[in-house]
Amino acid sequence: MTRSRVYVARRLPQAAMERLGEHADMTVWPTDEVPPPREVLIREAAASDGLLSLLTDRIDGALLDAAPRVRVVSNYAVGYDNIDVDAATARGVVVTNTPGVLTETVADFAMTLMLAAARRLVQADRYARAGRWKSWEPMLFLGQDVHGATLGLIGLGRIGSAVAHRARGFGMRLLYHDVIRREDLERDLGLQFLPFDDVLRQADFISVHTPLTPQTRHLIGAEQFKVMKKTAILINTARGPIVDPKALYQALATGQIFGAGLDVFEIEPVPADDPLLGLDNIIVVPHIASASVETRTKMALMAVDNLLAALSGQRPPNLVNPDVWERRRGHAAPELRL
Ligand code: DGY
User: Fold this and answer.
1) Is the full-model pTM beyond 0.90?
2) Integer-rounded Cα radius of gyration of the chain
3) I need a surface site. Which of 84, 161, 195, 268 has the fewest CB within 10 A?
4) Domain of residue 311, residue span
């Protein structure tokens, strides 16, 4: 039996590379720090049956048209806004992602940012290292309390509810807004559903957990910052473009809100001259919320299993576009790539 050829857009944890290598011929983009340039991705895709992509790789109709052999795109992320899923579905290409395995790790990190931003941890660390610490001072680095505060979750999917679980332990009052109401979680976790603006108005901490879609792009902008408390802290571990960065800058620079902790940005990496980087009341980290050894390994193994399942004609466990599969079962149209 001929082995499938796959292109892997970045080196992944060893266990996943080994598993993939046992079952397929793979080419791996060798540079850890940067993704393959578009032309390399297209050239490699054109010679491949499957792609293992990252959130840094744009997979669209043009790329798939140039790669008629590709039957599956397995994304090494739970989010898949880097993939034009409709374009893939229209071409009979299976798309998969890595849900679930990173939930708890990302929720840990949302809490990390919340605590660090509230207690001005990074600012205080810089201050102490710079030799500016003269004595114990009553007013030095006064922050906000997390315990007993009100948390507003924007989005109550897996990660949002894992954050709610943790926040309960801090005795926080829990508010949320989502397009889907979760009465089960309201009961179990003591969450209160409110209209979007009311969550923004009442929350001391606002943590974003929605996917990036045309509806959520710049969901939090100038109008939303206006209704927030002056002591509010915004946390984003979801996707950068959900928050309008210019409005965020204004809100932080003018004291409209107290602070922010961001793992994700509209443009990644954040350009060195981005004005946000000049502010003290923001914590900026390079999209690492899921970055624990264990979780990144689980994500990689899941992405490999999805890829191999689709290539061997089995329904991948984490199918984003089940339509492709259903069409196949109901006797695929000739143009489908399955
Ligand atoms: C994802 O999986 O979507 C994260 O942003 C990276 O882990």
Assistant:
1) yes
2) 22
3) 195
4) 4-100+293-328
